[in-house]
């Protein structure tokens, strides 16, 4: 997301949870924003939407392989944050939601287990979710059509992070050859896009 509203840079931080998803708040108007869509849900800026761009997840090893001279920034969190990070990383590996998350959640979309990881693509008014395990069973690469656009989804060398690109040149107006995509859990994508398709189940 680009934190520029009406030509002014806004400053955001975590404010709460809804459906197990983070809600951002801005310091300028004290409005609350959806961190996946960039849309303001409550407050003086309600209805305003930030520009959203696709962000690719990767590993340090892959990044160094592609850009040997890349600079890598490492933060220096305090002891409390280091401890909390270890706990959160453990819960992530065990596919456990932190305490309190489930209390904010509605009835789940049971087409997939809620903690299923995958890539969600938003294109041409359609949304489709690609479970990580399905991508692996397909050899790490699949071709599909979403919102009328031909798209290729490929797993990286680690087999963890998927990435989608247009297979034909497409004018997006944003200088990118990649559709809007989110690497996320099923519960987050299905709550945000409740009528989304699932690759392999939509036909």
TrEMBL record:
One Pfam family from the UniProt entry? DUF3179
Q: Which domain of life is it from?
A: Bacteria
Q: What is this protein called?
A: DUF3179 domain-containing protein
Organism of origin:
Marinithermofilum abyssi
